[in-house]
Amino acid sequence: MGSPRGRARLGIDLGGTKIAGIVLDRDGTTLAEARVAAPRGDYHATIEAVAALALQLEAEAGTPCTVGIGMPGSPSPATGLVRNANSHWLNGLPFGADLARRLGRPLRIENDANCLAVSEAVDGAGTGARVVWAVILGTGVGSGIALDGRALTGRNGIAGEWGHGPLPEPRDDERPGPACYCGRRGCVETWLSGPGLAADHARRHGGTHTAEAVVAAARTGNPEAQATLAAHLDRLGRAAAQVVNLLDPDVIVIGGGLSRIPELIAGLPAAIAPHVFSDAFDTPVRASLHGDASGVRGAAWLWEAETA
């Protein structure tokens, strides 16, 4: 299919319930986009669904494309097999190799949080920043790092893996912390995800409120909901500061469903600052510019350096 230089970029965001695809030209203009339902629990059907969507979009764009894939979990550098995916039917299988064989071309595959970081670094809320730390706060919690617009994956392919570390500086009522599906207790994800926020409110005040309902109640002045949201912001600040002390990013970009809570974005710098080992903290915290499209755009931009 010739050199990748100058070709359009096709990105696929493989989620647990949907598969989104996009084709971008070299300037980032959308040439084609679509989404389909993800075949849950069926590995081979997932391969076929992703391949069919990629081929459909390439045909609609009318030009050969490089292909980048964003997915839950990541391929192991040691084996090429998927690990740590909450779409459990992918784990332990050579998804990248099988899909590349099906499409007849090389692929770039990254964790979906890395794709968020790349998207926002290239032409989003982190444009112009050398080091972008992108955080996903949604059903789960994760993060990715973009360095000069490219995903930083690390030697073991786990750079930015934040959701399954322990909550820093736990208080007595935060020990040992909620049980996590990974087998540990007190992971950052169990506290800072949308379900984590809802579960914390239920432990404190009872009821079965969703995270959205807690936020809505806090905005009306409900003191119990306001206390839950304040505790959530405090934990987010402690957890984020741990990464700031290690990475010192130029910008922090927040994506995922909880990024739509302006109070979290606005309050996070002050929540981080007391825990940063510095005499000053002025790192901007911004909501993702591309929102739900950031993952799929970042997957397309995985080939950015070769096609620029």
Automatic annotation (TrEMBL):
A GO molecular-function annotation: hexokinase activity
Listed SUPFAM superfamilies: Actin-like ATPase domain
Domain of life: Bacteria
InterPro entries per record: ATPase_NBD, ROK, ROK_cs
Family matches, as PANTHER family: D-ALLOSE KINASE-RELATED, ROK (REPRESSOR, ORF, KINASE) FAMILY
This protein's name: ROK family protein
